[in-house]
Amino acid sequence: MGRSFANLHIKSKNLEKTVEALRELSQEHAKVLGEPNNEAQEIKVVMYVSKSNENWISVLHDYFVWGTVKEIGKTLSRLIEEPVMTAGYINEEIFELSFFENGDIQAERIFCEQWTRDEYEELKEELINDDYLRKVLDIRNEDFDDFISITSPQQAVNELSELVRMSLWCDSEWIPYEETLRKRFEKYEF
User: Which of 36, 45, 131, 189 is 20 to 30 A distant from 175 in Cα terms?
Assistant: First the structure.
């Protein structure tokens, strides 16, 4: 087994608005985060938030894994009027990139080798919308065409990190071990 991570990113310049949406997600939709939905929540929901650059705010949480982060991103997109991007990278075999607005999937791309698609029989994009991807990621046409033709998950993560000017290589489990992540992300308790 190889390295895995999952995270989400909100295309927003407004950190305060994003934090309020995360608070609402934690309090009103705790079930999507693997927590019981109850008013007197004894355990605080811990999230790590970073204003990664002028366009994107990154969020980490210990329940974000490939398989859960999409539903969390979908729910969050209903609470905030901004595009939400989820990234799931599993065992160095699959990089799944999904985009949501207003609770609906807008686009998705899965970067993997053909043998991986064959092995995971149900592995296919929910909605391919390259025009949306190009627009929301703000990538030039030439760069975008090169990017979506990548089949190596690791290469796709590296290329997208460079194109959007923020590292996607981050996961809440890595924070205790990586000083650069501890400096980049601020801890929030909701």
Answer: 36
Bridge-based pairing of strands 5-11 and 84-90 is antiparallel
pLDDT averaged per 10 residues, the chain (length 190): 90 96 93 75 86 95 94 97 96 96 97 92 90 95 94 97 96 96 95
What the block records as the tokens of 6 is 């999952």
Q: What b/e readout covers 51-79, taking b as 16+ CB neighbours within 10 angstroms?
A: bbeebbbbbbbeebbbebbbebbbbbbbb
Separation CA 56–CA 64 (nearest Å): 18
Q: How far lies 51's CA from each of 27, 118, 132, 146, 190, in Å?
A: 22, 38, 23, 27, 18
Whether this prediction's pTM lies above 0.85 is answered by yes
